[in-house]
Amino acid sequence: MLKGINPLLNADVLQALRAMGHGDDLIIADTNFPSDSVARQTVLGKLLRIDATAAEVVKAVLSVLPLDTFVNDAAARMEIVGKPNEIPPVQKEVQNEIDAAEGKPWPMISIERYAFYERSKKAYCVIQTGERRFYGCFAFRKGVVPPNAE
Fold first, then answer.
1. Active-site annotation holds for 22
2. Is 68 known to be catalytic?
3. pLDDT digits (tens, 9 = 90+) for 83-140
4. Where in the sequence is the domain holding 113, given as residue range(s)?
5. Where are the beta strands (DSSP E) in 20-137?
6. Catalytic residue among 22, 36, 51, 114
7. Is 149 inside a domain boundary?
8. Number of domains making up the chain
9. Catalytic residue among 30, 68, 124, 135
10. What span, in angstroms and rounded, lies between the C-alpha atoms of 31 and 11?
11. Residue 72 maps to which CATH number?
């Protein structure tokens, strides 16, 4: 246990988040996502796990990970097949956590399912969650921590 660090953030996850650089992608995936096979193709090359809901994991991760302010796709969600504009409850919950972490509305773009898989393979790492609801898959692009920031 560490003071000021969300207890969901285990040592492997913290090490990966710290090692990521500006512009690197992080995938937070539900239990149905092909996490292990995709994770083997990422920079880290192994799967990370946090057994909690997608929203709880996003809240924990964004408590330490800055989002990239130089791009419009720093937060993304997997689209529902055939219903790209529909936003299920799991995605609404994650949107709320993103907005809370950033202190302002921060739009998530949507990515078609197979395009999401391709982005995931190029990511730094994949964290598989205990989220059982469908379409609980998200991509986050790491930003920077400016000088004199806490």
1. yes
2. yes
3. 999 999 999 999 999 999 999 999 999 999 999 999 999 999 999 999 999 999 999 9
4. 11-141
5. 25-29, 47-50, 75-78, 109-111, 125-129
6. 22
7. no
8. 1
9. 68
10. 21
11. 3.40.1650.10
